[in-house]
């Protein structure tokens, strides 16, 4: 089987010759290619070549094209810091009061430079790997997470309890439009899958009832938007998601990328043959800081539990640190 065929099989629950691998390794790929994160985000050619070199070096089955977690926020006018040696980040929202969302300009992300760079990198990667390697074009933040960046994370968490309902849903609608625009643009690059992250929506930060009310409905709409373009879709939420697994599955996502904090036995019990797991090795404690023997043990454990379902793509539970040893990734790949 080709690498792309392996991942396609895992998304449809069909058997393949081995468990496929698609890592969230953009920071490590940039580091191994010898460029800073500034160079990586500023030049689509560098981004593309770094990711292709990585998949060639380790023989992964897929490329997850990511750049940072604040591109959509920046496209909506949120102030963004661009450190030379780290992903871009934002600290402050742009709304003094939640009701000010009504004064925001119409959503139009396609002219934002870092959206342009991200999309062009995916086009270049797809042009190079063709139908041999599976390409997942990440589309930054899902609506709930993006709303927190636009408002300011602390204020947004307070708003969930005290603000007017129309203002909460109004900002979420606004952010859903931004996320949907990115998905539509990404679908035109030729990639094989689209995805979003919605980590602040998890139980580590908000109770499940708030997830169901303010995150789930908008995630579901984003999944539907992706499916209308013909794209499979992956949803990622950090932390322990055990309390919302059934709702995450109900979004209609084809795959869920889950953190190591969610117990693999609980995942297997909830998923059965309904959805594909992407994950969930601890990126820091095991892949970056662990020994090759620890990586082998965790890889074996995951394959033993999830490999027999035919709905499993091996990955870390979140982005892999740039200082992860090559020997640890080699150890992981040797266990397939």
List the helices and strands and how they pair.
Layout: H1 3-12, E1 22-23, H2 26-33, H3 37-42, H4 44-58, E2 62-65, H5 71-75, H6 113-129, E3 134-141, H7 143-151, H8 153-162, H9 165-187, E4 193-197, H10 208-214, H11 216-228, E5 233-237, H12 245-250, E6 255-258, H13 264-271, E7 276-281, H14 283-288, H15 292-306, E8 312-316, H16 326-334
Parallel strand pairs: 1-2, 2-3, 3-4, 4-5, 5-6, 6-7, 7-8
How would you sum up this structure, described in words?
The protein has 336 residues and is an alpha/beta fold. The protein has a single domain, classed as Alpha-Beta Barrel (TIM Barrel), CATH 3.20.20. 50% of the residues lie in helices and 12% in strands. It has helices spanning 3-12, 26-33, 37-42, 44-58, 71-75, 113-129, 143-151, 153-162, 165-187, 208-214, 216-228, 245-250, 264-271, 283-288, 292-306, 326-334; strands spanning 22-23, 62-65, 134-141, 193-197, 233-237, 255-258, 276-281, 312-316. Strands 1-2-3-4-5-6-7-8 form an eight-stranded parallel sheet, with helices on both faces. Helix 2 (26-33) packs across helix 4 (44-58) and helix 7 (143-151) crosses helix 9 (165-187). The radius of gyration is 19 Å and the shape is globular. The chain starts with a helix and ends with a helix. The model has no long low-confidence stretch (mean pLDDT 97).
